[in-house]
């Protein structure tokens, strides 16, 4: 499988991703899967310029699933998305992966499930997170590449959640 790493980070490609994660992963290309970014031409262009030296493709979830089903990914790929729901849709749409890395999920008005300042979810995102876990996906929480990954359920329990 050419998808080497799947990360959920609500900021998508930002300084830490471009300077640290990409070197850590060693990917040849970045797939940015975001319904929000794919429908915003300005954000799409910014994302394509955010990681100099890398090819960045931006797709909405449904388009990515269709492409994935028709054409195997050959380049070593870092896949980043801004939504737990997008990852669940990809999994249910046949995208093969067994592990997901969580980065920052910051507070927003609609994120009422708060495990920590950078681990916040809408009720739907929280449901989808637990659905992924129930499907056997290994999910780690790791803000920076130099941090040790922590199983997401351990992190949620440390924060007093279930």
UniProtKB/TrEMBL annotation:
<keyword id="KW-0762">Sugar transport</keyword>
<keyword id="KW-0813">Transport</keyword>
<dbReference type="InterPro" id="IPR036667">
    <property type="entry name" value="PTS_IIB_sorbose-sp_sf"/>
</dbReference>
<dbReference type="Pfam" id="PF03830">
    <property type="entry name" value="PTSIIB_sorb"/>
</dbReference>
<feature type="domain" description="PTS EIIB type-4">
    <location>
        <begin position="1"/>
        <end position="162"/>
    </location>
</feature>
<dbReference type="GO" id="GO:0016301">
    <property type="term" value="F:kinase activity"/>
</dbReference>
<dbReference type="GO" id="GO:0005737">
    <property type="term" value="C:cytoplasm"/>
</dbReference>
<dbReference type="GO" id="GO:0009401">
    <property type="term" value="P:phosphoenolpyruvate-dependent sugar phosphotransferase system"/>
</dbReference>
<dbReference type="InterPro" id="IPR004720">
    <property type="entry name" value="PTS_IIB_sorbose-sp"/>
</dbReference>
<keyword id="KW-0808">Transferase</keyword>
<keyword id="KW-0418">Kinase</keyword>
<dbReference type="GO" id="GO:0008982">
    <property type="term" value="F:protein-N(PI)-phosphohistidine-sugar phosphotransferase activity"/>
</dbReference>
<protein>
    <submittedName>
        <fullName>PTS sugar transporter</fullName>
    </submittedName>
</protein>
<keyword id="KW-0598">Phosphotransferase system</keyword>
<keyword id="KW-0963">Cytoplasm</keyword>
């Amino acid at each position: 499988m050419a998808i080497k790493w799947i990360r959920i980070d609500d900021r998508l490609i930002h300084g830490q991703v471009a300077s640290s994660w990409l070197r850590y992963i060693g990917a040849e290309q970045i797939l940015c899967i975001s319904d929000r970014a794919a429908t915003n031409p300005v954000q799409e262009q910014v994302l394509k310029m955010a990681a100099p030296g890398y090819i960045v493709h931006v797709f909405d979830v449904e388009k990515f699933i269709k492409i994935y089903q028709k054409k195997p990914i050959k380049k070593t790929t870092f896949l980043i998305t801004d939504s737990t729901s997008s990852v669940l849709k990809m999994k249910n749409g046949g995208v093969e992966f067994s592990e997901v890395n969580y980065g920052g999920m910051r507070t927003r008005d609609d994120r009422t499930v708060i495990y920590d300042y950078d681990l916040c979810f809408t009720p739907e995102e929280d449901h989808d997170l637990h659905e992924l876990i129930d499907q056997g996906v290994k999910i780690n929480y790791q803000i920076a590449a130099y941090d040790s990954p922590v199983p997401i359920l351990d992190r949620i329990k440390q924060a007093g959640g279930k």
